[in-house]
Amino acid sequence: MNLIAYDIGLLIIFVIFVTLFLYKNKKNLKKEGLLYIYRTSWGMKIIDKIGQKYKKTLKFLSYVSITIGYALMAGMIYMVGKIVYVYVAYPAIVQELKVPPIMPLLPYMPQAFQLDFLPPFYFSYFIIILAVIAIPHEFAHGIFMRRYGINIKSTGFGFFPFFLPIFLAAFVEQDEKDMEKKSSFKQMSVLSAGTFANIIITIIGFILMALFFILAFSPAGVEFDSYAYTVTGLSAINMVNNQTFDNHTYESLNNSLEDGLNTVRVNQTEYYLTKDFLDKQRNAQDYVLVYYKAPAIENNISNVITSINGETIKSMDKMNSVLDPYNPGDEINVTLARGENNDRITYKEKLVLGENPINNSEPWLGIAFQKQNQGAMGKLISFFNFKKPYVNYQPNFGAGVFIYQLLWWVVLASFSVALVNMLPVGIFDGGRFFYLTIFSLTKSEKKAANWFKFSTNLILFILVLLMVFWVIGIL
Fold it and tell me: Is 191 within 8 Å of 429 (Cβ atoms)?
């Protein structure tokens, strides 16, 4: 809570500082369309020096940049198609996420939409990431402009006035007529340079994130987020809380449940079910997931297991080896930790080991790992976290989590900007890049313009369609 208070304080200070700066230098501020533009000459000497000094290197990098641009464009088109498929075929995912498909990365966005699979996003992250992404992106444009003799009018930044002066966007303004005189290759080099810079930032950020994680974090227990469960047919449930149940619908089952644990009998076997767990299955028709009657859920143990009978637990293998000598019915002491970092509360719990439903001779706690097995997204998050499955890691110093999450967002945001910027849509660099590609292939400005218009309208139509499916999905 203190961190959020400091972060909001920083936001207020930043808004005041930028407002005063713009007021003092209002002669450089002009309104163009929806944006306010502040023009300067910052960085012009550096851009010109690099662009003129390293011509051979930049010529080689032009080929690399254009190739990456095509790869990103193809990847983004594929992703758009995949997102459309998910929204149409799997409305349950839309209902679960609740976040709109078109959503800029704004401070506190994961917290506001309760996106637990993403780390929190603070205003301080936003400002740092804005600088890390925007400045190299625009400087790369400028460097390649000067490499190919394109005149640069100014540098600067812009913002939407209705969002307050905090959502800044840097720019390098080229002479458009001078740009259009250059060959398609030179123009495409300039256009793809920004995304090329973002890819470099992504790679550097990823390496720094990996090194920081290795140095700043240590395994501290086995992390689980659910209890062991199985699937049963809705029609097989014959009793709920000792009351006969024969109206086999999702709604009637939900109405039969009370707060807390509910006993559900399937034939002669008893299970547990909670309203929250059932609510996550609201699209189920003929089947339902139910919890096994196991020590973990019966004793309400949760979060992180740090030791069993005094032996430190830092991995699933270690936990299994510690439990191996015991039998179902044996009593053990489990040390648990709840909360995050400095707020973690450690306590001990005595419980009696149960029988594994698959092999009755094996001791069993009955814990599960639901969120860590959520398909492609789960694998992506785990990959970025550099963590072994089911292992809880704790920082070796106080600011470890804050810094690591900042690096995580730098990598994600840099790669996302590189992808989105290469969409074949007029407002992005990818739009002009696509136009020049068609022109190079057909040698016809008319065909290039028509294909450019078609791709822009098609992508915009798809985005509107996604918003419609999102609204339908959350209603």
Answer: yes
